[in-house]
Structures are given as C-alpha cells and as structure tokens.
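fyi for ur records
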Amino acid sequence: MADSPAPPAIDLEHLARYSGGDAALEAEVFALFRQQLDIWLRLLKPDGDAEEWAAAAHALKGSARSIGARDLAAACEAAEAVRAAGAAQRAVAAEEVRRCADAALGFLDRHTYKARLAGLRSASQRDNS
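which gave:
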C-alpha cells in the first residue's frame, strides 16, 4: 500500500478563510510571519531561561497557527511542554521546531515563486492581446 502524500507545510485554505484570498494581504502576512519566525527562533535556546523558552514557543505557535502551519504549531506546542525539562530535551524540541520552520519557509518560497510567475504570465498575456 502506497503512503499518502504529506500534507503541505502551510494550509492555504486556512489562510484564505482569513485573507479572503487577497494575494497582497497574504504576502504581507507571510512577510510578518518570516520576521516573527526569525525573532522567536533566536530565543528558543535549549540552555536558556525556561520562561523565555516558553514565551518564544508560545508566540511562534500562535504565528504558525495564524497562517495554517499546523506541523510547526504542533512542534511549538511540544516545545512549550518541555520548558522545565533539561537542555537535552529542549534541544530535541528546538530541532523539531526548526525542521518544521524550514519546511514552512520552503513552502512559502515555492508558493511565492509560483504566484509571481502566474502574475508575470498574466501580465504578458494582457500585453500581447
């Protein structure tokens, strides 16, 4: 029996429910997500303060949920749960968060590229008609 394909790193239907399908708004949301991801990932230090760890994991979880990055949100929730654990457990959780973050960013890059390409094709078709 063949494995079913993995779900996308970001649920675009989830995002479209909130953006109304507005591509400009989605691009702005993606840019904000990238900024927040950069900030919160830097604070997710396995040997750092437990409160800072929990705040970073919680904030990142909310950002991930807002754009439909379900795997990233789940990894952040798991990271929140090990806030009082030792550095070794937190390191494992941080690695999973980073893996899921990389998947979400890769998805965003591909999605953005496809959207720009479609926009260029559409503009070219208008210019040639």
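The mean pLDDT is 88. thats all i got for now
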